[in-house]
Design brief:
The complex is a heterodimer.
Chain A (H helix, E strand, L loop, with lengths): L2 H24 L10 H14 L4 H9 L1 H21 L6 E3 L16 H23 L8 H18 L2 H7 L2 H24 L22 H29 L1 E3 L3
Antiparallel strand pairs in A: 1-2
Chain B lengths: L1 H21 L3 H22 L23 H32 L4 H4 L5
The chains are: A mainly alpha, B mainly alpha.
Chain lengths: 252, 115
């Protein structure tokens, strides 16, 4: 199909889509006028029922916890899929970069860059842990905190070099973190069955609202999701880095 | 206000799709898809907004009186972001392999390559 035919097809399709979209959007309640009765109820009830102050976390990990279970598995399968796609292919080999000019040493990163990396890296780890553990209190949680934790790896790479990063990302540990996080969610769900309630019901003591230990299973689920997301995104970072640094076409 | 909020949604979605259709680079195509996908985030948040509302986080409430916005839509937007990141990652990995096999990232040039 030539470029022009494709654009013509697109023009017809997008006109139909724009009309449908316009009719659909026009049928929505006007912006800022109301929220659904369900959401209003949850805003009222979640604090008393689950002893949390962040209702979004209560919905993600409790009221609609089963959705999040599948969401977590989508992420796990995506990470697995990317690992499979980016493996060394039949005509490729893994080879660490070697020093071709040993008589000239690689200049170390400038102290300013190194200091910034140390400062930013520790700040990212701290913020990540804070975000994961306070999911039931303030905006945040396992998904957000996990991504912040994994991004510390990029800072280490920017501040040092590839060989140092290799030491910071032991693959078995990252994979274990990813897998433990995903299965941990299921195990915490099974606690509900063990207690004689339904799967993923909040059966752990709820604690005092507004303190670190509150919300029953919600902070626990945040922790396992944080583990999974941090491990998964760190795996992604190392897979994409490997593509440029160690995976190369085999010499024939 | 309604027209602006939903207009942005429609514009982002359509311009994203336009970018996907006319793209000459697979990385650019993935970014265009992310633009189209971000329209759904804005749609969810726009549906859940309430005039003068505060975030559905009930810490230090006296400082922020008034109604809270829809927490369900925010939870759905979170799901949307996560799935979007998963899709983007997979597509970028595919783009890396396409570039290795075909030596190009132009979708139009890919038709000629057979491997």
């Amino acid at each position: 199909m030539s470029r022009r035919t494709r654009l013509a097809f697109f023009g017809v399709a997008v006109a139909a889509l724009a009309v449908t979209l316009g009719v659909g959007l026009a049928g929505l309640p006007s912006f800022g006028s109301q929220i659904t009765a369900y959401a209003g109820m949850l805003n009222e009830l979640a604090q008393r029922q689950r002893h949390v102050t962040d209702v979004v976390s209560a919905i993600t990990f409790d009221y609609r916890g089963i959705d999040t279970l599948f969401e977590e598995f989508i992420l796990l399968s995506a990470v697995a899929g990317i690992s499979v796609l980016l493996r060394p292919l039949s005509d490729e080999t893994r080879k660490l970069p070697e020093d071709k000019a040993p008589d000239r040493s690689i200049p170390p990163p400038s102290p300013a860059v190194w200091l910034l990396a140390v400062f930013l890296g520790s700040l990212l780890v701290l913020t990540g842990i804070e975000t994961v553990t306070h999911g039931q209190l303030t905006p945040g949680g396992g998904f957000q905190g996990g991504v912040i934790l994994a991004s510390a790896l990029y800072v280490v790479y920017l501040g040092t070099n590839y060989v140092t990063v290799e030491r910071f990302e032991p693959a078995p540990l990252l994979e274990a973190s990813d897998g433990t996080g995903a299965s941990g969610y299921v195990f915490i769900g099974l606690l509900g069955l063990l207690a004689g309630a339904s799967f993923l019901s909040n059966v752990v003591g709820l604690g005092t609202a507004g303190t670190l230990i509150s919300g029953g299973t919600i902070p626990l689920l945040n922790l396992v999701v944080g583990l999974e997301v941090a491990g998964g995104f760190a795996i992604l970072a190392s897979e994409f880095l490997d593509q440029t640094a160690v995976i190369r076409t085999r010499q024939r | 206000m309604s027209a602006l909020a939903y207009g942005v949604v429609a514009w982002l979605f359509l311009i994203g799709i336009y970018g996907v259709v006319t793209s000459r680079n697979l990385i650019h195509l993935v970014v265009c898809l992310s633009v189209a996908q971000s329209a759904t985030d804005i749609l969810l948040l726009a549906i859940g907004y309430r005039s003068g509302g505060h975030a559905p986080v009930f810490v230090s409430l006296p400082a922020h009186p008034g109604p809270a916005v829809d927490a369900v839509m925010q939870a759905l937007a979170l799901t949307d972001v996560v799935v979007g990141a998963a899709v983007t990652g997979l597509l970028l990995a595919l783009a890396v392999q396409v570039h290795k096999r075909a030596g190009t990232l132009d979708p139009d040039a890919l038709r000629a390559t057979r491997d």
